[in-house]
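# step 3/5: fold
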Amino acid sequence: MKIDANEMNKELQQKVNEVLANTEDKNEGVYEAISLIVEAKNADLVKEIQAEAERAASDSEYRKALKLRTLSQNEKNFYESFKNLKQAVTADQIGAIPNEIVDRTLADIKESSNVMSLVNMAPANVKLWVTGSHSGKAGWGALTAGITDELSAAITALQIDVHKLSAFLVIPKGIRDLGYEFVDQYFRAVLAEAFQDGLEAGYIDGDGKNGPIGILRSISTTNSDGTNKAKNVISTITGFSPKAIAAARKTLSNGGKRVISAYALICNPEDQAEYVDPALYGETRDGNYVNKSFLPLTVYPTTNCPQGKAILTAPGLYTMGLTGGSVMTYDQTKALEDADLMIVKAYGNGRADDDNTAVVFDVTKLEEFTPGVKVKGTVSTKAEA
């Protein structure tokens, strides 16, 4: 979880500083501080859901307009445990998050995060998921050993329950006392926000040892410490003309065996402003700016992409999954009488279909787009005139 001090008001900063300074148990102090910050951050969301629940109780048409999910009995039982969270889920008793909630949360993340929309999500609680390079062959005739080998080489099994992803959540009593559908609305919202950054970071630069293999890294080669090696950063992409981008497109095509219909460029927001947009946009005669790329190219800025590097890739070439989601609460945390701090854990993994699904390049080498000038007829010099 990222905490930005600039987003906290002075009163909250003072409370957090007091908790950290005056609590003898430093671990407990950290948990208490997180509780204060997260509750303040989600205060507006809590008020919004409480207001919706109050109005929905007496307005059936409004309730229909909210399009609340119909929960399974498994989900209802899970949220019922929130009514008395301290007794239902303790540090020694872990409650499993129903698969339906995990699936819906991942779908929410794909909708809210432009970057994660590029990723294929395996269903929750599937421990082994098949991913492929999308470059296998089919052939008429006898199923020979050669064809079998080619097909097998294009398919890889992704072991999902390998790495642990953890996040802090705060569940206020004002939410826990609402109907199941509204508890679900809040829980999925804060869970999606908590996990989104971690999933993005894993997709882009997971080291393969403590998390997924990110697209900045090579699948097939590792360092001596067990992490996957960083891909080479090429410095030959200076613009987005057909010739300038040809080599990268050839790589993404995986030797001409994969057709790319849409391209994605992932970069740091500062690099987008400094290098990417100037290279993509040109000024028209009427003073407007238009995207001059001949490619169906979409830019995806994210703080999880390191400055100086950009990634050319495409949607649907990376698979990620989560399984074994669970929650626990630390009853030694006494920061808030009207809320409980929960630790949410899930196991997951992710990897690209192959090493040719992403090209990493030095974004600082991009040159500002300069429109060409075409002259019709004959141009004479002064000496020739």
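# step 4/5: annotate
The chain has two domains: 5-134+157-207+323-348, 217-316+358-365.
# step 5/5: archive (pending)
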